[in-house]
Specification:
Layout (H helix, E strand, L loop, with lengths): L10 E2 L9 E5 L21 E5 L26 H17 L6 E6 L1 H12 L6 E5 L11 H7 L2 E7 L7 H14 L1 E7 L8 H26 L6
Length: 227
């Protein structure tokens, strides 16, 4: 099974995006591209932001969209997550400048897909913010590359999140430190949601990504025409 992302449903930040690093927002189960777009005012300036719509429709009567089917809250089948991550990378190849630094910010299902996209294409994804989500169970061919490159990942979750199972949380807590430069926090009392403190921490993390991308671009420009 293959799925695709509807580029016409993507929401873009209003400012010109040429020459800027790109942050892609991936919503959770039952939401849509509008859900995380409200975070734009809390994000660093100087970046382009795209909020994408997941490719699937959940079973009736659930509204919104989904990245993959949920068989159970403790699912270990990563096939649907990988399929969605492939679709995200295909969309990225169509809409993004190949030279642009790309970060992904996903919530719940969107977080799982973001981390899986990083595993599929570590050369294309420079940073991931995974909120209330998890790393898919099972090995991937380029996991060894991640152990070497250790890309920056922020993982935030609530202490009272009863949606993501303890098994998947424990797996992610073991997997991420081995495959990334991990930063993150468990927020006391927070359920399956995003808090203002978490947004502040995400802002700090993404500012570092933006500044690193700007430094890299500035260094590259020094070797080209015009300096």
């Amino acid at each position: 099974m293959t799925v695709s992302i509807d580029s016409t449903a993507t929401l873009w930040s209003p400012e010109p995006r040429e020459g800027k690093p790109l942050l892609v927002l991936l919503h959770g189960y039952g939401a849509d591209e509008n859900d995380l777009f409200g975070l734009v005012p809390y994000l660093p300036e100087g970046i382009a932001v795209a909020a994408v719509a997941a490719p699937l429709t959940p079973p009736w009567p659930m509204p919104g969209r989904s990245w993959y089917a949920i068989d159970s809250l403790d699912t270990r089948d990563a096939t649907g997550i990988t399929t969605a991550a492939d679709a995200l990378l295909a969309w990225l190849g169509e809409v993004a400048d190949p030279s642009a630094s790309v970060a992904l910010l996903g919530f719940s299902q969107g977080a799982a897909v973001s981390l899986q996209a990083l595993r599929l294409a570590p050369e294309r994804i420079d940073a991931v913010v995974a909120l209330s989500g998890y790393a898919a169970v099972g090995g991937m061919p380029l996991d060894a590359t991640l152990r070497e490159t250790r890309p920056p990942v922020f993982w935030g979750r609530g202490s009272h999140d009863d949606v993501i199972s303890d098994t998947l949380v424990a797996h992610t807590a073991q997997w991420l430190p081995e495959h990334s430069e991990l930063s993150g926090r468990v927020y006391p009392g927070l359920t399956h949601s995003i808090s203002e403190q978490e947004l502040a921490d995400v802002g700090v993390f993404l500012t570092k990504w933006r500044d690193a991308a700007a430094s890299a671009a500035h260094g590259d420009s020094g070797t080209g025409e015009g300096g």
